[in-house]
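Dear colleagues,

As part of the handover before I leave the project, I'm documenting each prediction I ran so the next person doesn't have to rerun anything. This entry is a single chain, and its sequence is reproduced below.
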Amino acid sequence: MGLPAMRPLLLAGGKSTRMGTPKHLLRMPDGTPLYQRQLQLLRNIFPEPQTIFISLAQESETDEFLGELLSQAATTADQSPGTEDGNTAPAPAPPMIQVLRDHHPQNVDAKSSPTGGQGPAAGLLAAYRYDAWAYWVVLACDYPLVPAEAFYHLSVKRDAVPVTCFRTAQGNCEPLLAIWAPPALSRLAERVGRGHPQPEETARELDGLMIDAPPGCEWWLTNVKTTEEWVKAMEEMKLGPGGTGEIAAPEGRA
C-alpha cells in the first residue's frame, strides 16, 4: 500500500466579519489579491502537476480568476463521460487549482455556534469530504506573511500525530497553519456535528503536536483579523524576488 497523499488546501471562505471586507480579496502591496499570493506559496511547495485546492463558501465574493475556476468546475461536472460514437471519453486531466465549496454537515446544532455556522471547519470538512484518506496541508488567508519555509518546518517536525500545527508565543494553537491527518478530520466532523466547530479545540483534544517557530521567525505567525492588523502587516512586508510569494523577514527581525 502506498503512502497517503499530501494535499494542499487554502482556506478562503471566511466571512471576515472583523475585517469588514473579504479577506481573500485584499490586495498585497504589488496589487495581487491575497489568495493568489497564498496559492503561489502553496505552488512553490507542491509543484505541478499537483492540484492546489481552495475552499470557498457558497456566498464568498469572487474576482475574475475565481469566477473562471468556478465556471470550469461547473463545466467539468456537466460533461458526459461518453462520446458521440458511444465510446468512453478519456478522463480529463486534473485541474491545477480546484475549488471546494465549504461543507456544512446536516446534523449540526447551529444553536451551539455563536454565528450559526462552522467557520473554517467547513473548509476543512470540504477537504475531508473530497479525500478522506489524505493528509491536508492547510493554509488560511489569515497569515499574509508566512513563507514556504514554515511548511517545510512543519513537515520535518511532523510525527505520527493527528494534527501538527504551530504554537504562538502566547501558547495558542494555530490549526489553520497546520497538517491535518484523516483521524483528526474525522474527529472534527464529529465535533462539528455536535455543535463544536472550533478546529483549535479538536487539535488540543487529540494532543496534536504544537511546534514553535524558529527563534527570530515569530513573524511567520502574524495573524490578521482587522484592518489595522492588515495595514501593519503590509507595512512590514517585503515581497521576494519576482513576486513569487516568498518574503524576507521584516526589518529588525532575523
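Strands lie at 6-11, 52-56, 97-101, 135-140, 163-167, 173-180, 209-212. Residues 78-84, 108-116, 239-254 have pLDDT under 50 and may be disordered.

All the best with the project,
I.
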